[in-house]
Amino acid sequence: MGKYRKLWFTLIAILAVTFAILGYFGNEVYRQAPPIPEKVITTGGQELMTQDSILDGQTAWQSVGGMQLGSVWGHGAYQAPDWTADWLHRELLAWLDLAAHDNFGAPYSELDGEQQQTLQYRLKKEYRTNSFNKETGTMTVSERRAKAIEQVATYYSRLFSDAPELQKRRDNYAMKENTLPDAERRKVLGQFFFWTAWAASTNRPGSDSTYTNNWPHEPLIDNKPTSENVVWSVISVILLIAGVGGLVWGWAFMRKEEDREPEPPAQDPITTFKLTPSQKALGKYLFVVVALFTLQVFLGGFTAHYTVEGQGFYGLETSKWFPYSLVRTWHIQAAMFWIATGFLAAGLFLVPIINGGKDPKYQKLGVNVLFWALVAVVAGTFIGSYLAIAQIMPPELNFWLGHQGYEYVDLGRLWQWGKFLGVVFWLFLMMRGIRPALKQKGDKNLLVLLTASVVAIGLFYGAGFFYGERTHISIMEYWRWWIVHLWVEGFFEVFATVSLAFIFHSMGLVSRSTATAASLASASLFLLGGVPGTFHHLYFAGTTTPVMAIGATFSALEVVPLIVLGYEAWEHYRLKSRAAWMDKVRWPLMCFVAVAFWNMFGAGVLGFMINPPISLYYVQGLNMTPTHAHAALFGVYGFLAIGFVLLILRYIRPHMVFDEKLMKTGFWWLNIGLVLMLLTSLLPVGLIQFYASASEGFWYARSEAVMQSDILFTLRWIRTLGDVVFIVGALAITWQVIKGLLNKTSREPVTQPVPAEETM
């Protein structure tokens, strides 16, 4: 550890404490998850549903795309309703109409104010009272509520079929005709939706708030933000301000003088290594990255168009073959694959550099095997999703070969295992080059940190195997966010930071001590908020107030290190003038500058906009969420993967010169297109929905009345401008990479290789 002892102990202590918090309150998620009753009966003893039928409904929901078609508890797609909020509101209205006829002989809408208030009081009392008996595992509902449930279940059964009177609504919801052909599965699907609505409307024992902390906003039963929600939201803002202030003071008064920057070498040290067979084999990885990137971009435009023409594409009835839920699945999975492939390629490129300029034995074979395994997993994922959503795949095979139904981890469990084993194999290939280097003399702190981030990436994806097809959705959400938040936003962030520091040090542009200290400090700052900050996704997923408190507190701290990324962007930008040969890697550097900007704006500003509990209470499941997601996922990880690809391309095709016209078009049109997409469409739509959610209720913000209003319809069409600009940028980048890969001119003679210990 040497002079970095304090930084190492700080990082280790942060990891120990934060994972202890994540584990302890994860156990609370298991203990406090809303109960799934063994049976639901009426006061007259009629059995309405069972635990098995509710879970059968969950698997039916997964098979039609799950979170890619509407959402449950606010997590999922944004065009169709949130099924929890929609079911609840429809059931409440049905109950009120039944009660109005029973008590006053008229529809609820025709009653005077006093009569309506009387029925609303009775409604709230019935729905907020918990009728679940823990000893018998039985939930009891009134005869009137049973009739209301039956009415809504009939509507849902017809909605998910091809009932002609609901065709226009399916079109507005971007649902294909006969979404779920089997009548029995439609019946149990409704039972699952009912249970999610029950948990969102029934008080937790010993509490005056529901199992979902009073989410969604539903004035009919007084579902409104809890006092704890407001308190922890205020605390999170205070912590953000305090954290930013502390960081500024620490930056100004406590940091030591940086090492004097080393004199840049006359030649790029990385070019002094002879290109190894495994590095030459990375060209096909780069091609797959840009191929999947291009596919993902076009699928994104296709998906966005479904928000204005729900079952077609400019008059073609495409939903018969490629419905919204399928293309959205492919859009997200393509992003996961091409970004991950870019990161894997960056690691594999570094192995020979770490290993003193040579490949470990059979490294090229390993690189090729990993590539074809990746191709098989991608193909299996795409084909399986198609067969599942088309309802061709037998239901019992759906979870394993088709569609898990959970956003970002949609791929069937078999393909998920394939992806995990591929990442573990990548870890093995990385360690074959890192292990010998660790045994050499010299300062190995930066290399050890890089190794730790590689190991974390290799192993933490395994969190996705801690839930199954019929796992309680609250527990599933806990583990899902280990992947989506912790694996991606945590350890990939650390790997990116350390790998860039390692590359710049290998180029001789930054000293080893500066690179090491900055990487250790950055890792500590990212993980301090990032690990427990996982809970900010679980405020309303059937968890208790302490989970909200932890999530709000630490998600505020997540934003703190992003504030200084403007300085990081400047540091990266000025590297281009350190040496004449740096001009050859100017465009990869520009991508890294973009990463710093989007980390600050997309992950920081737009992220904190929705992170406090009081904000997320109203906007979870609205277009405010994809505003942050697009800016953070592509702006940060997308640009980072593209930067890695361009950097690798520069070295494996040494005679290639970046086409300035293509690169300017690609870089700036991607950035401008993303800004247009966010600020002219996604964010304005989200703000309008936010107002609708706060004023009328969450169900209303996702209703046809709002989603098909003239202004939202226009804003979704306006998005086409940003999409087109973005697509042009993507095509320019893709063509540059393909042109570069086709440039196979032999490499010039190299100078004497730099000793391995001088590159670490």
From TrEMBL:
GO cellular component: membrane
GO molecular function: cytochrome-c oxidase activity; heme binding
Keyword terms of this UniProt record: Membrane, Transmembrane, Transmembrane helix
Domain of life of the source: Bacteria
Gene Ontology process terms (BP): aerobic respiration
Ranges of residues in domain Nitric oxide reductase subunit B cytochrome c-like: 37-217
Keyword NAD: no
Transmembrane segments: 7-26, 230-252, 285-308, 335-357, 369-394, 414-434, 446-467, 479-503, 515-535, 547-567, 587-610, 630-649, 669-692, 717-738
Transmembrane keyword on record: yes
PANTHER family from the UniProt entry: CYTOCHROME B SUBUNIT OF NITRIC OXIDE REDUCTASE, CYTOCHROME C OXIDASE SUBUNIT 1
Protein name (record): Nitric oxide reductase
Taxonomic source organism: Kangiella sediminilitoris
